[in-house]
Amino acid sequence: MTNQNSLTPLKMLLFSFHATNTIILSFLPLYLRYKGLNGTEIGWVLAVGPLASIFSQPFWGYMSDKYKTVKRMLIICIIGLLISSVLFFQMNGLLAIILMGAVFYFFTSPIGALGDSLAQRRADDLQVSFGTIRTWGSIGFATSSLIVGEVLSNIGVQYMIWPYVFFGAIALIVAFRLTDVKVESDPIQFSDIKQLLQNKTFLIFLFMIVFLTISHRANDSFIGLYIVQLGGSEGLVGLAWFVGVISEAVVFALAGRWFRKFHTLIFIIIAGVLFSLRWFIYAAVKDPMVIIALQVLHGVTFGVFYLSALEYVTRIIPRLLQSTGHLMFYAVFFGISGIVGSLIGGVLIDSYGGDTLYMLMGFCALTGTIFLIIYHALPFGKKARG
């Protein structure tokens, strides 16, 4: 079996899982609005996902490191995704939606992190670029956003469960064909996690990026509602995600060519500057078509930032603790940041409109970028140079 063949199931898993992820990210806020929830209540539901991920990401990461398997954990989580999603979409009323949402997110939130952790390690083992594997996630995301956006525009957002279960089933089928990671070491002990919690470089870095990731996650939650607020449709929301994720796929695919030329923190800082500019421009725009055109910036903000941050984290944590470290990174990136972004974003878009939300996101990203520039100049930031 060639290297390329052995990576095909992994690429297909990333493609199909991120296709499901699109449906939740792009259309769940519109679905919840169809169910009669207002912006603040939608923010509460969207905050349940990141809250669940703070517990589920480290839990599944720890189980993965303890039993030295990513594949088995992925299969368990995808089965959980399929069962809980069917139940989640049957719920009516805010409390029922929130409670079932917590179960649903407990299984779904670690899948992306475990998939990326597996991809990062397989890339290292096979001496290929992580971005060339991860780009398949972006292609799945983009394909789904365009097709599902058009389908839901025609049949109604209330039927979003059907494409979701379709892509979820494909993810489960290909998960059984994955090549698992091989770790030549003793299984992780709970005491080993103390090493991560005592790693000052790691913890300070996680604190710095929170300011950028809050703005990123608020955009994930509310760009759909903002486009609708500006007069757009479900189809335009799907198109916006398509444009953004295609640019992200290009960045991931070409990562091997540009990525090693500078220190990873330089790329993180550049992405931070562009994040700030992007949100300030969104705040000033009044035409949804301009937002869609500017979604090209998603690749050079999120794409560059995510690749660089994951690479940086991989360098500063021991190999034995990679899954746990990656999932802690995810818990901050998509967890803590997602809670803050969803709750505050929901109140702001309800009370003051999308333009005020995006203006404050711009200032938040700018603060994080300034912190990162200071961090880069300090000894902590220099530790992972290479």
Automatic annotation (TrEMBL):
InterPro entries: HcaT-like (IPR026032), MFS_assoc_dom (IPR024989), MFS_dom (IPR020846), MFS_trans_sf (IPR036259). Residues 196-386 form the Major facilitator superfamily (MFS) profile domain. It holds the Pfam family MFS_1_like. The keyword Phosphoprotein does not apply. It comes from the Bacteria. Keywords: Cell inner membrane, Cell membrane, Membrane, Transmembrane, Transmembrane helix, Transport. It is found in: Cell inner membrane. It is a multi-pass membrane protein. The chain crosses the membrane at residues 12-32, 44-61, 73-89, 95-115, 136-155, 161-179, 200-218, 238-255, 262-282, 288-307, 327-345, 357-378. PANTHER family: 3-PHENYLPROPIONIC ACID TRANSPORTER-RELATED (PTHR23522:SF10), BLL5896 PROTEIN (PTHR23522). This is Major facilitator superfamily domain-containing protein 6.
